[in-house]
Amino acid sequence: MNDCIVLDGKKFASEIRSKIKDLGKQFIEETGFTPGLAVVVVGDHPASKVYVRNKIKQTEEVGFNSIEHKLPTNVSEKDLLSIVDHLNHNKKVNGILVQLPLPEHINSDVILDKIDPSKDVDGFHATNVGKLWSGLNSLVPCTPLGCSLMIKKLYSDLSGKKAVIVGRSNIVGKPMAALLIKMNATVTIVHSRTKNIEEICKSADILIAAVGVPNMVKGTWIKKGCVIIDVGINRIEKDGKNILVGDVDFNEAIKSSSMITPVPGGVGPMTIACLLLNTLNASRAQYNLNEIDLSSVL
Ligand code: NDP
Question: How many structural domains is the chain composed of?
């Protein structure tokens, strides 16, 4: 009999949004101010369009203001910088998100660096990255933040546990490592230049897959009782249909893991919920109110 928990990210994210709605209401009553999230979208990237639509819808559902800036693909870097600068100075905007990827003629690093770190709800600004790695309070990238909340459902402290992260991106792998270190895990990151990935994965008590390779992590790579967080979102064709799968072979992994996140319906919904959490926390910090640690109130 296998006791693996399949963590319903949709349900968990909905609980988080409902908590944020309550906390947001309290904040509005306390300050007389409604948190505002500005989303800047350049061009017509189809996946970004769906994602941005969901962000705006969910922002409004929790009672926050949503401000969208839609810009043409050929907008210049200079004009985009000036829009970000304008948002930095707009008191009604507490969070700024520039949807990636940006067109090739625009240097994303330059744009992300322009965002006021106190409004950087994606947590990509070097100031927030530095704070995260220094163990200080900061705005943390939304996807790894969501993963850490999922892990905290089982463990609040990872002392003596070994965590392995597959993937070293700035968006997922690296900030995930910083968060796991903060939870006292012993962390290894593997990537495309690592030898013996399978052996390293077999040693993991917590395994985070953020690679973008469908079903890469096999059932045989997983130690009994391992907690698996599958960040990957991969579209593949199966039996003539387009389906989404993760980076982990779910059907095999479920046999030995103690908890696993499905794809779809696992990490995905948590990302926007954490964006709303960051927007609330950015607003609170701007009013000198303490940061909400959701794991302590859920
Ligand atoms: P990146 O492409 O930026 O990074 C992928 C990482 O995986 C890199 O570090 C790369 O190594 C490593 N990698 C690639 N192939 C292999 C391999 N064969 N063996 C070992 N390592 C490998 O991707 P992201 O981090 O942005 O995203 C990862 C996945 O997560 C994607 O499927 C993406 O769609 C999904 N995602 C999901 C989100 C959500 O909300 N659920 C949010 C963000 C991402 P190297 O650095 O050496 O190239």
Answer: 2
Q: Are residues 112 and 160 in the same domain?
A: no
CATH number at residue 49: 3.40.50.10860
> Is residue 58 flagged as an active site residue?
no
* Ligand 1 centroid, distance to 66 Cα (angstroms): 29
Kindly indicate the confidence band of residue 1, based on its pLDDT and cuts at 50, 70 and 90: low
Domain that holds residue 252: 142-269
Q: At residue 210, does pLDDT exceed 90?
A: yes
Residues in a beta bridge with 230: 209
34: tokens are: 């409604």
Instruction: Please check whether residues 146 and 111 belong to one and the same domain.
Output: no
**C-alpha–C-alpha distance, residues 169 and 164, integer Å:** 14
Tokens at 278, concatenated: 């960051």
User: What's the whole-number mean pLDDT along residues 79-100?
Assistant: 97
CA 263 to ligand 1: nearest atom: 41
Same domain, 47 and 88: yes
Domain boundary among the residues 51, 81, 116 is at 116
Q: Residue 153 catalytic?
A: no
Burial class of residue 11, CB neighbours in 10 A (0-12, 13-18, 19+): exposed
Whether residues 182 and 102 share a domain: the answer is: no
Three-class secondary structure of residue 275 per DSSP: helix
Q: Write down the number of H helices and E strands in the chain.
A: 11, 11
Predicted confidence (pLDDT) per residue in 131-155, tens digit: 999 999 999 999 999 999 999 999 9
Q: Which atom of ligand 1 lies nearest, measured to the CA of 172?
A: 25
Could you give the percent of the chain with pLDDT greater than 70? 99
Q: Is 174 a catalytic residue?
A: no
Relative to the CA of 267, which ligand 1 atom is closest?
Answer: 41
> Looking at the domain assignment, is residue 48 inside a domain?
yes
Check 19, 58, 99, 230 and give the catalytic one. 99
| CA–CA distance, 154 with 82 (Å, rounded to integer) | 45
pLDDT of residue 48: 81
